[in-house]
Amino acid sequence: MNTYNKSPVQPVKAPVKPEKSFKFGAVRAAIWKSEHRSRNGEQFETRKVVMDRSYRDAQGIWKNSSALDLNDIPKAILALQRAYEHLLSAPAQVDDGPEVIIEEDVI
User: Fold this and answer.
1) Can you say how many angstroms the Cα of residue 77 is from the centroid of all Cα atoms in its chain?
2) What whole-number distance in Å separates Cα of residue 8 and Cα of residue 37?
3) Is the pLDDT of residue 106 over 80?
4) Rounded to whole angstroms, how far apart are CA atoms 26 and 47?
């Protein structure tokens, strides 16, 4: 057993394809869903947004990069905004146990 791995969360399986992608021109924001299992065995999902830009190299081969040109920035903003809206409308199903409400006195 590896005693150096103290991570409280272990991935259950790697996703095969993104849950949803938003593409504007050469810029894409993809939402990836991962299932994890905590130390106590509870399973839960997380979602991450990965953004990239497609381009052709000198030989004409399609490649991806995380670097953006000036004209890519507005497209990246749109793609990230759509990804954000999707995440808000379809949140991950996470069971945090009973809801706890903390009330603060405003003075």
Assistant:
1) 15
2) 9
3) no
4) 23
- Where do the structural domains in the chain lie, given as residue ranges? 19-89
Q: Which residue has the tokens 């299992």?
A: 37
33, two tokens: 């869903």
- How many residues would you count in the chain? 107
pLDDT at residue 91, rounded to an integer: 61
* 3-class SS string, the chain: CCCCCCCCEEEEECCCCCCEEEEECCEEEEEEEEEEEECCCCEEEEEEEEEEEEEECCCCCEEEECCCCCCHHHHHHHHHHHHHHHHHHCCCCCCCCCCCCCCCCCC
Q: What percent of the chain has pLDDT over 70?
A: 70
Q: Are the CB atoms for 51 and 61 separated by under 8 Å?
A: no
